[in-house]
């Protein structure tokens, strides 16, 4: 504990790191304040009463978690940063199949700037489309009585305000990444998720107030699941790579053994985000057709996130996208070529094609347990709800929520660790095994 307190003091003594952390916290506070600002034309008190009567279950309650409660409160940040995530996913997928985007990825900094610009344009277009569906759902759904202005005017203002709100949140995330600490976009999502944790835990305690032992068991299981996710997120297979010894003048280089790390979960949280986006599509289209009974039935089925059918389909899609995303982000051929150019080789494996095939075989084998684990984590909230855990608290037992919390926290701690080590301080956690520790 003394070492942890010393690390906190070291963080505070480094002016640049201290300013970055305070800057990040300040922008996140601005984002949280924005979630409580209601859209023009909405009676906030009436909407609160309607939401209280309808409960917080279903897919809308799940979506609400990622925007810190702004979705059900009809806040100006109701769509949050999710349209940006969707646009980023689309651009990334196009980079694997469209030659133009492949060319941009090879153009270095200029190509990255162009991709970022296209992602921003895509975010505006996706937000505009989603805001139309959101406005229709507010106007013609059970929350329609909360609208106090003309519905056409409400539609126009909602599209403009929601689009502007998402662009502003995107700007906040980019500023945090540039001048703060951690990945700004991920931190924005994490703050929205964390905002639900205290209330969800309080509700769980309130419901099981007569038997606090059950709550302690649930919290214990949650801690164990979180520890398991951390373990798998940090797990990797290290492939030894030998570099040939070279003599340049009077100095010799190489001749050392290094390791090529292959992560068990190389895809991170993206497969669950992909799968969740696919599962959201039917409900999104159903919101555009409130009078179509068939569309509403399909949307209702995909809104039952605690059903067996939904869980099985979700698990299969997550496993598929884990392999798919790993295939487009980890390129064994490129690894083998880079290794060959640098004079490295895997002992017992010929450089070139055989090295590529060897890495690909290991990647395929190690991705199998990673994908199954990821699929299991994705459907853990359904199991938790089946055992009587409330939906709000069950969402923290797995799925996108838990993975985002774990990976964003690890990434932020790793950046703090790097700042400390760069200035010759001990790491943030002396006894830890943070990836990136060099001493």
Automatic annotation (TrEMBL):
This protein's UniProt keywords: Cell membrane, Membrane, Protein transport, Translocation, Transmembrane, Transmembrane helix, Transport
GO terms, biological process: intracellular protein transmembrane transport; protein targeting; protein transport by the Sec complex
Topology class, membrane: Multi-pass membrane protein
The keyword Ribosomal protein is annotated on this UniProt entry: no
Residue intervals passing through the bilayer: 21-39, 74-101, 121-140, 152-173, 180-200, 212-232, 266-288, 308-330, 366-387
Single GO cellular component term: plasma membrane
Keyword Ion transport: no
InterPro entries to which the protein is assigned, alphabetical: SecY, SecY/SEC61-alpha, SecY_CS, SecY_dom_sf
Top-rank taxon, per record: Bacteria
Compartmental location: Cell membrane; Membrane
Subunit structure as annotated in this protein's UniProt entry: Component of the Sec protein translocase complex. Heterotrimer consisting of SecY, SecE and SecG subunits. The heterotrimers can form oligomers, although 1 heterotrimer is thought to be able to translocate proteins. Interacts with the ribosome. Interacts with SecDF, and other proteins may be involved. Interacts with SecA.
Function: The central subunit of the protein translocation channel SecYEG. Consists of two halves formed by TMs 1-5 and 6-10. These two domains form a lateral gate at the front which open onto the bilayer between TMs 2 and 7, and are clamped together by SecE at the back. The channel is closed by both a pore ring composed of hydrophobic SecY resides and a short helix (helix 2A) on the extracellular side of the membrane which forms a plug. The plug probably moves laterally to allow the channel to open. The ring and the pore may move independently.
Family membership noted in the UniProt record: Belongs to the SecY/SEC61-alpha family.
Protein name (database record): Protein translocase subunit SecY
Record organism: Longibacter salinarum
């Amino acid at each position: 504990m003394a070492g942890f307190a010393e690390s906190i003091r070291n963080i505070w003594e480094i002016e640049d790191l201290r300013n970055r952390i305070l800057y990040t916290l300040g922008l996140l506070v601005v984002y949280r304040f924005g979630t409580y600002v209601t859209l023009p034309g909405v009676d906030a008190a009436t909407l609160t009463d309607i939401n209280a009567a309808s409960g917080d279950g279903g897919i809308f309650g799940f979506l609400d978690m990622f925007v810190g409660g702004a979705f059900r409160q009809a806040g100006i940040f109701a769509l949050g940063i999710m349209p940006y995530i969707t646009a980023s996913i689309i651009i990334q997928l196009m980079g694997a199949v469209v030659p133009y985007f492949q060319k941009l990825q090879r153009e270095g900094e200029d190509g990255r700037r162009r991709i970022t610009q296209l992602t921003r344009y895509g975010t505006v277009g996706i937000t505009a489309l989603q805001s139309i569906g959101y406005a229709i759902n507010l106007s013609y759904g059970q929350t329609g009585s909360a609208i106090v202005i003309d519905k056409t005017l409400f539609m126009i203002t909602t599209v403009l305000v929601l689009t502007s709100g998402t662009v502003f949140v995107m700007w906040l995330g980019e500023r945090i990444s540039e001048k703060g600490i951690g990945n700004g976009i991920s931190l924005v999502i994490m703050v929205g998720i964390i905002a639900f944790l205290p209330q969800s835990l309080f509700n769980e305690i309130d419901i099981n107030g007569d038997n606090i032992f059950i709550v302690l068991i649930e919290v214990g299981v949650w801690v164990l699941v979180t520890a398991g996710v951390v373990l798998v997120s940090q797990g990797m297979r290290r492939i030894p790579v030998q570099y040939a010894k070279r003599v340049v003048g009077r100095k010799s280089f190489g001749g050392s053994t290094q390791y090529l790390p292959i992560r068990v979960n190389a895809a991170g949280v993206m497969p669950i985000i992909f799968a969740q986006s696919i599962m959201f599509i039917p409900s999104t289209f159903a919101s555009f057709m409130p009078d179509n009974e068939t569309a509403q039935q399909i949307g209702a089925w995909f809104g039952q996130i605690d059903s067996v059918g939904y869980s099985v389909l979700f698990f299969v899609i997550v496993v598929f996208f884990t392999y798919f995303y790993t295939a487009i982000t980890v390129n064994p051929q490129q690894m083998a070529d880079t290794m060959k150019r640098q004079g490295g080789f895997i002992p017992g494996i010929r450089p070139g094609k055989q090295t590529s095939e060897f890495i690909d075989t290991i990647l395929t084998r190690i991705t199998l347990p990673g994908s199954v684990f990821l699929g299991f984590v994705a459907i853990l909230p359904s199991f938790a709800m089946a055992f009587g855990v409330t939906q709000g608290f069950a969402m923290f037992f797995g799925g996108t929520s838990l993975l985002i919390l774990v990976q964003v926290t690890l990434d932020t701690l790793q950046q703090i660790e790097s700042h400390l080590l760069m200035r010759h301080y001990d790491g943030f956690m002396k006894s830890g095994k943070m990836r990136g520790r060099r001493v």
